Amino acid sequence: MENLWTKNLRDIEPYVPGEQSKEEDIVKLNANENPYPPSPKVVNAIKNFDCSLLRLYPDANALPLKEAIADYYNVSVSNVFLGNGSDDVIAIAFQALFNSSYPVVFPDLTYSFYPVWCSLFNIDYKTYAVDADFRIHAEDYKERNGGVIIPNPNAPTSLGEPREFVEELMSYNQDSVVIIDEAYVDFGGESCIELTKKYENLLVTGTFSKSRSLAGMRIGFAVGSEKLISVLEAVKNSYNSYTIDAVSIEAGRASILDDKYFRSTCNKIIQTRQRVTQEMRAMGFTVLDSQTNFIFVTKSDISMYEMFEYLKTKKVFIRYFSLPRIHNYVRISIGTDEEMDILLKEVKGFLK
Ligand code: PMP
Known about the structure:
The structure is a single chain. The protein is α/β, with parallel strands linked by helices and 352 residues long. It has helices at 40-47, 63-73, 86-97, 113-120, 163-172, 226-236, 246-257, 259-282, 304-313, 337-351; strands at 27-28, 80-83, 104-107, 125-128, 147-151, 178-181, 202-207, 220-223, 286-287, 294-298, 316-317, 319-320, 329-333.
């Protein structure tokens, strides 16, 4: 007989991240990580960190990092919230800002963590289908809702919408909080951080994991009105005051202060992406016009699942989602030119 206490255990289907293989010599293009190291200034900040300080709790407000982000985006410190990666920031935002009897709404094809958080926090949700070209239409989000969350650019489709899209979205959603998840915006998308000054109910989230090569450090942030940020702070301080550790505060700040390095690595990734897009198209693949550090790819006459499995045997890891509408697509993160050459060579081998 089953023990009664097992009935009290939480039964939840978690989010599954891209495989983190321990194998050596793999080409890892499955988690949208940055192929370049973080800025040398970040490396110096970590090397020079005074480890004796680790006996103390970090600044709960992570002020040096908040100040750097506030200056960078031309907002006040009171408009910035920090978390342990943007997953943490968004999870806190779900708990803090989505407390309505109406469902939270997001696209059907999007970041698959959103439904998981809804389930974890008992939030009702509803999805609106992206169109046949995977575009999101603001007018679909007119119905009364308990909050909106949309990644822009979207994942895994890689498509970005212009700032007017967010303006239109805000015009239909004056009675709920709208979150725009800008995890990939630095690779050619249009940020709407500036619009947080115009709309008190708009929250924009960002991350140091992709464009700043700091996925291993776990730094995420949000920019929004003082009202929204103060509620996020209250929820965060109700379960963990110290989400940003002392080393991350210094490393994150150093990253923001090295804009030249940041821009040069983003540009390199954009250029590699454009080249790989063209080469894959020349091989007969359909590649969506990406504004991210990954491409979303299909070929109607072959199985993308088989290609994904084949590439794995060649130590090239990409991402496959067994989901309706996109079961014959793969998502390929943009690596260095050398890594992408290996990918292209192995894809050619697969086609033969
Ligand atoms: N939003 C989107 C759309 C993402 O793809 C990711 C990365 N998995 C995140 C947020 C979270 O990234 P992180 O927690 O590393 O900041």
